[in-house]
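ZP: hey, is the zinc ion complex queued? I don't see it on the tracker
AM: it wasn't, my bad. submitting now with these inputs:
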Amino acid sequence: MRDESLTFLKELVNTPSPSGYEEYAAEVYRAYTSAFSDEITTDVHGNVAAILNPKAEMKVMLAGHMDEIGFIIHYISDDGLIYFSGIGGHDSVIPVGQRVWIHGTKRVPGIIGRKAVHLLDDDERKKKPELRDLWIDVGAATRAEVEEFIRLGDVVTFQYEFEKLMGDRATARGFDNKIGSFIVAEALRLLKTDGGLDPNVGVYAVATVQEEIGLRGARTSSFSIAPQTGLAVDVNHAIDYPTVSKTRYGTLDIGKGPSVMRGANANPIVFRMVCEAAKADEIPYQVDVAPGGTGTDGNAMQINRGGMAVGILGVPLRYMHTPCELLSLTDVENCAKLMAAYCRRVRPDTDFTPRVMKGI
Ligand SMILES: [Zn+2]
């Protein structure tokens, strides 16, 4: 990966952006994409679109949500303990014993406490704690001490940052889905620097907001942009480690390329064009199957206005929604290349209407 791209990736994933609080990540996204976009817009919901050929009538939307899961503070007790709710889907076994950052008027370190193992009775030992049983301890003894820097509605993230692992693999908090915003930005950069985009096709690389709480940013941004087609990119569960069943979920291996979704949530012409682009450019990919609407931005995009021809790409990822998500940086680069390759195949008159076709 290019040094500048890696620097951007690190900054984006390390910048906290729980749903509804994406402003800092948006700054990072705008700063990076400004070098290779014709125009950048930020809408009232917070979605940021970096655009090439903004005047073109045929519009391709690339969506990668920039929000991440996190916590939000809803109560501070008299003895200075902080109670929180989850933003997005959490496995409540994860937060226990973790260090967190509270994003108050300054960044305050805290820990998520739980009764020591010696003090748990037999029943408590067997049962997994719920988020409502947990609290954050910042070391304060009174509510007043906490309130010096922390207010209700401040958000919280785990103290984990980007780190390279062996080979081309890396771990971070919030790869889901800052990696998607990274990929749409990189796809736009590749289109600008390597060319090949039809001058009458506009590309909108959108870092969307609030995906983790119901695909909300994809809904507003696709409505305003009104694109005919688009690709959503999100992380996708790698099914390549013990305890996950291939007979139940199919296969998806880290390192074997991005996934391309086939099923009702993908337009068949887009699916075909993406696969053809991958073959022509020798980009590895894996087909992933979804029987209905997916939990990705692609779901909201497909049913935008009178319908939009959507494809869904995925980056294989282990341990989703934990602070140590793991992926392959090669898969990430291949996903950006595949997005760019798709955009190059779109023409001002491409017909996305499903019809009987032979082949893929
Ligand atoms: Zn997610």
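AM: back. The first strand starts at residue 39 and ends at 42.
ZP: great, adding it to the tracker
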